[in-house]
Amino acid sequence: MRGAVSWTDREVELLTITLDLLRQHGYDRLSVEAVAVQAKASKSTVYRRWPTKADLVLAAFIEGTRVSAVPPRTGSLRGDLLAMGAGVCNHAREHGATMRAVLNEMSHNPRLSEAMQKEFVHQRKLVIEEVLAEAIERGEIDAPIDDEIFDLMPGYLVFRSLISGRAPTQETVRILVDQVLLPSLGFTGQS
Amino acid sequence: MRGAVSWTDREVELLTITLDLLRQHGYDRLSVEAVAVQAKASKSTVYRRWPTKADLVLAAFIEGTRVSAVPPRTGSLRGDLLAMGAGVCNHAREHGATMRAVLNEMSHNPRLSEAMQKEFVHQRKLVIEEVLAEAIERGEIDAPIDDEIFDLMPGYLVFRSLISGRAPTQETVRILVDQVLLPSLGFTGQS
Q1: Structural domain total, chain A
Q2: In this complex, which of B117, B151, B180 lies closest to A180 when CB atoms are compared?
Q3: What's the complex ipTM?
């Protein structure tokens, strides 16, 4: 992917362990030491690559969502939107604590916030633009979603995952796609 | 309002002080003691009414958003949606730290989460239902938004407020209303 980060196998291993520990213990109780112990690495090895816990968690977040860094290419706009929505739901379910932690850290950590913009938000914007450009090429729609609200679907689904008891489901995504996104994009239903 | 909480003048005063202190210092550095000192109240007075800091902050949040607990009644669906969107943006700008804190606390505090559902989410759902019912009565639309995604606009705007550098503006709301919500509701443009 254009501009995406790539990690070594060893780094991926450390990030996978970080995600596991986050899932088990949450952000507050995660320690860089525990990650190092489980990976049989020294703490300084981990810190050399990710100077703070926040950096480590952001990297783990990006690794955990890597599957959504490329367009799903199902062959139709509806299929692509449903697949992307399902991806956000899965990620939110598996990595809810990580997501919450990243959002929280971002609010008082400008450097992390900038990294998140560059390494995550911008990547996802490219994916959405690509999905819509392909739909325009196929003649399914005439114009993309307004730039200002390009992240309407993932944003709403993330919001829903933050509210306990309102975790988004496949049905949420289907209704959002069929009753809101496709009509607002002027989807003709023909490909 | 149906089912809304009502507070005494003294309680409103305590909640206003809480909101001020939250805005100045954020959730983590807010202490119930500081609220009591500034209100010239005893700590036990505050604790008697709100047993934990989380309860106090939730109450302050609800107080701070009271203006949005009634339909705006501008006379048109478009006007109502724009007004409600602007309300969410204003609130998010003024009380971002409180909102973030409430969302965060909710994730590991089931009692708070339930209170939030009952005293906030449910109230806002009634307001949205009322706005859409009035639009149907005026003949502006035929059917309301699907129940599953009734909070699409506030949810997305809240998400945007959580991402630094992406705070929603009047323009965000206008695009969301004109290019997404109204078309998806089958708005005819006639009232």
Answers
A1: 2
A2: B180
A3: 0.87
Q: Do A72 and A129 reside in the same domain of the chain? A: yes
Query: Do B36 and B94 share a domain, yes or no?
Result: no
Instruction: Give the highest mean pLDDT range of A125-129, B23-27, B120-124, B164-168.
Output: A125-129
Local structure of residue A108 (DSSP, 8 states): T
Query: CATH number, domain at A12?
Result: 1.10.10.60
Q: Does residue A69 share a domain with residue A38?
A: no
* A59 contact partners, CB below 8 Å, separation of at least 6: A5, A7, A11, A15, A18, A50
CA distance A2 to B139: 49
Handedness of CA A20, A22, A116, A68 (dihedral sign): positive
- Do B18 and B111 reside in the same domain of the chain? no
Span B138-179, pLDDT tens digits = 999 999 999 999 999 999 999 999 887 789 999 999 999 999
Q: Is residue A58 part of a domain?
A: no
B113 touches chain A (CB under 8 A): yes
Shared-domain flag, residues A101 and A173: yes
- Best to test chain A binding among B112, B117, B156 (most A CBs inside 10 Å): B156
Shortest distance between the Cα of A156 and any Cα of chain B, in A, equals 5
Q: How confident is the model at residue A5 (pLDDT cuts 50, 70, 90)?
A: low
Residue A87 sits in the same domain as residue A30 = no
Highest average pLDDT, of A83-87, A97-101, A112-116, comes from A83-87
Is A118's Cβ below 8 Å from some Cβ in B? no
Q: Which domain holds residue B111?
A: 65-184
pLDDT of residue B179: 96
Cβ distance A179 to B149 less than 8 Å, yes or no, reads yes
Continuous H helices in chain A: 9-25, 32-38, 43-49, 53-64, 77-94, 96-107, 110-116, 122-137, 152-162, 170-175, 182-184
